[in-house]
Amino acid sequence: SDKQANLYKKATQEAVDHLVQPWPSAGSIGAEARGMLASGEGVYVHDENGRRLIDGPAGMWCTNVGHRNEVLAETLKEQAMELSYNSPWYTTNEPSAELARRIAEHAPGDLNHVFFTTGGSTAVESALRFAQFYSNVRGLEGKKKIICRDGGYHGSTYLSASLNGSQRSRNWMDFADEMMIRLSCPDPFRRPRDMSLEDFCAGLVTEFADAVREHGPENIAAFVGEPIMASGGVIVPPEGYFKAIRDICSANDILFIVDEVVTAFGRLGHVFASESCFDVVPDIITFAKGVTSGYFPLGGMVVSDRLLDGLRASNHPEAMFAHGLTYSSHPIGCAVALKNLDILEDDLLDYTREITPYFHEKLKALEELELVGEVRGMGLMACIECVADRKSHNPIRLDTEVGVRIDRHCQELGLLVRPLVHMCVMSPPLVITRAQIDSMADILHEGI
Ligand code: PLP
């Protein structure tokens, strides 16, 4: 209606006048109009003009059970009416205790304790601070460096952002770069064209082992990595890579921290992917996003009993892990996460595994297009990478704006695409049907 249209117009103006959007460029900071979304249902969102779009990136990899889920919406209200907040400093609520138990049951190995945070960045930050605390309490004060990789993305707090792989963003801000040991991106598509996958994997593992030797295990607290680099372009590492670097970490007393902020809670058809898909049992897993399907900001880390037992046995009764958030273990977030987990356990995990081959079959067909260098992915995560030249794999130059134009075309045709330069990243709500996958693939075909 006209009234509604005027409301969106007003909201857009208010945003331009008063909102600072995430990741703004200096030239438009505090003065930006981004597309206004009005509502959502299932895999769809509606824009301010009432146009229905498939939510290709599921928000930010998070709307796993889809939009407008009544059970989750009701749970938010019910928990707010029951207990809307309690201080985690000196009290506990029942939903967080039950959720911790259920997460521990799904987590691999002896990862049996959960610290809840407000999202992914705070989950990764917590894991890094924990790793340093763990070194200090054991009297290993020098053991502080963190191994991370180009192409990774781990958040926007100081330490988590320091892990990020994009040099472009680091050029303009201060980061804890001196703490980081940066290794290569395990991107098979960008390996030298005449190198086998086995040799590529062996090279990455050698680089890892060399870095540990060069910096000294006594100076390295942890490795942090995504099992699949999500924002880096859905980069699936070569087979065996994760297990090999896990072994190096174990042999050198380096904590192996897997950032499952994107991959946990169903995206790859499992609650956690580390063991199910990559055959590794981490020391710490971080999660967020899908844990509440984006209905409430919640994240956390699952920690190995071995580490906690070690701390308790350390004879340092005065040592304190001075780390906690006002909204740790938030009762509303945890109540929503419990219902979200019910939905995943009931049949959504099974459904995701069942629909995954169809999703990849349809998207893979886009490789027939001249612009498409590769379609890759795993579970309900895929990246369509556009190239300037299919022989050299040279990426499309940023200034050609091809990526932006593809996004715009797709949006006009009814598909929301996350703008990632020359890559179309698809991670739809897990409830997507075959017919909706067909529409997504058709729109991408036409848009590209
Ligand atoms: N870790 C990974 C792998 C992510 O993809 C993200 C966000 O996209 C984060 C951490 C940061 O999460 P948040 O934005 O909830 O702080």
TrEMBL record:
NCBIfam families: PRK07036.1 (NF005447)
Cofactor(s) the protein needs: pyridoxal 5'-phosphate
Domain of life: Bacteria
Protein name per UniProt: Aminotransferase
Lineage: Bacteria, Pseudomonadati, Pseudomonadota, Alphaproteobacteria, Hyphomicrobiales
Gene Ontology MF, one: transaminase activity
Pfam families for this protein: Aminotran_3
Entry keyword set: Aminotransferase, Pyridoxal phosphate, Transferase
Family: Belongs to the class-III pyridoxal-phosphate-dependent aminotransferase family.
PANTHER family from the UniProt entry: AMINOTRANSFERASE, AMINOTRANSFERASE CLASS-III
